[in-house]
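Entry 14. Structure prediction run on the chain below.
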Amino acid sequence: MEVRRFLKYKTEDFVLDDDFRKWVLRPDREDDPEWVDFFNTCSEKQKIILKEAIIIIKSLQPVEPEAPVFRSNQILLRLFLR
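Output returned:
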């Protein structure tokens, strides 16, 4: 990871960065140490920017509505009454 490219990033730059969004939404063993290390070594101002970007990215994800209880019960009955 090219850390220098992120040093002048603003919140919106992180939100639009494909690698950062991927890490926020689906962290993996390969990328996680690099991002955690970057977070731990950056300035307090940069940490605030990162936290803001994470909040924005997560808030833009669609939320699946919960199935009504009666619908869940119908599905369970079908599975167990076969």
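The helical segments are 11-16, 18-25, 32-41, 44-59, 69-80.
Filed with the rest of this week's runs.
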